[in-house]
Amino acid sequence: MANFNLNKVILGGRLTSSPELKQTPSGAPVTSFTLAVDRKYQKDAQNKQTDFIQIVAWRQTAEFIAKYFSKGSSICIIGEIQTRSYEKDGAKHYITEVVADEAHFVDSKADASQTAPAESVKGGYIPQSYIAPAGKQANSEPIAPQFEVIEEDEELPF
Predict the structure, then answer these.
(1) Contact 88, 49 (CB under 8 A)
(2) By the 8 A CB rule, do 52 and 105 touch?
(3) Which has more pLDDT, 3 or 88?
């Protein structure tokens, strides 16, 4: 039996602070932030429970997040869990964080149109049709890709 390894995380929540874009000594863009994610199941209906999850994003994903998201923004992150440890003052510290591969907008059209023009990073984007030009309403019809109509089955490659 072959080894099977899967490490995929999909999180939706709100940023607890505005992400700050930094650079490593080698010049790679990086940002880290905390994502507040409400739990689905709650013991007490009166008290909402929230997990605060550390997120790290690199390169274009980091630039995208730092440019278009701020404190309180809703965001969907797709990435993987990574763990690391370090020693400080004789004590070993463990860190678990999500390394973001993708970032997606989840705010409504009205909220998104206030933020930015179309942009894409590994699948995270706002399509042009999603944003209304100043003084105009956005096109309510989604833009569908144009496909060639094939009349006969003989032309199909399978």
Answers:
(1) no
(2) no
(3) 88
* Rounded distance between C-alpha atoms, residue 89 and residue 78, angstroms: 34
Q: Which two tokens stand for residue 144?
A: 């569908």
Query: Where do we find the tokens 């678990």?
Result: 96
Which pLDDT belongs to residue 137?
40
- pTM for the whole structure: 0.65
Count how many residues are written for the chain. Answer: 158
Query: What CATH number belongs to 9-155?
Result: 2.40.50.140
C-alpha 113/C-alpha 128 separation (Å) is 10
What are the residues whose beta carbons fall under 8 Å from the beta carbon of 123, sequence distance 6 or more?
78, 102, 104
- Nearest alpha carbon to residue 73 among 46, 55, 47, 58: 55
Cα(76)–Cα(51) distance, integer angstroms: 15
Using a 10 angstrom Cβ sphere, with 0-12 exposed, 13-18 middle and 19 or more buried, the burial of residue 19 is: buried
> Domain segments of the chain: what residues?
9-155
Q: Quick one: DSSP state of residue 154?
A: G
Is residue 129 within 8 Å of 143, Cβ to Cβ? yes
Of 84, 93, 33, 27, the C-alpha closest to 57 is 33
Amino acid 142: pLDDT: 43
